Amino acid sequence: MRIAVSGTHCTGKTTLIEAFLAAHPDFDYEPEPYVALVEDYGEDFSSEPSIEDYLRQLEFHVERVGHYSVSDKVIFERSPLDFLAYILALKDLKREDLDQALLAATDNQVTSAMRNLDLIVFLPLYDARDLDLPEDEDPGLRITVNDRLVEMFERFDVAVPELLGTTEDRLRQLEEAMVAPGKIR
């Protein structure tokens, strides 16, 4: 089973995945592309988020998702939709312009990569909206990405369970979703 944990930054993806891996040591783990690219490949990203940076992370993520077959057990920190959501959020916030041809190509890349996942679960922001996060976590971007993800799950017609509550609650909900995953088209 190929699982992706989706959500904007600071919603508990890493914490949930750590709990999941402790309970399911037979699963491989694919970290967030940003972390893998910086720590494992020495790549640098700008201090301010950019469309170029998210495109690079998407490219890496798509390659990693395509590396696994249906019979593999792997959990990914992020889904292809996450990167598209960040790209669109930068456009929405008028931080960068987005070429329509690039957007169409990115949309196609995401659609194709989604076919290589069996389950996507979503950690919505409203569960973490009241956290007192520092300004450098970019609350405007956080909220916009969350809203874009919700919109895209509907647009891509993907059944995505929202995991709510404590880490233990979310782990239980993830395990339940694994038994009866929704269809990813």
Overview of this protein structure:
This protein is of the alpha/beta class and 185 residues long. The chain is built from 7 helices and 4 strands. The longest helix has 17 residues, at 51-67. The radius of gyration is 16 Å and the shape is globular. It starts with a strand and ends in a 6-residue tail after the last helix. The mean pLDDT is 91.
SSE layout and pairing:
Layout: E1 2-6, H1 13-23, E2 28-30, H2 33-41, H3 51-67, E3 74-77, H4 80-92, H5 100-114, E4 119-122, H6 139-155, H7 167-179
Parallel strand pairs: 1-3, 1-4, 2-3
Helix pairs in contact: 1-7, 3-4, 3-5, 4-6
In short:
By secondary structure, the protein is of the alpha/beta class.
Structural class: alpha/beta
Oligomer class: single chain
Beta-strand content: 5-15%
CA-based shape = globular
SSE order, as H and E?
EHEHHEHHEHH
Q: Level of helix content?
A: 40-55%
The major sheet is characterized as: 4 strands, parallel
Cα end-to-end separation: 16 Å
Number of beta strands: 4
Low-confidence stretches: none
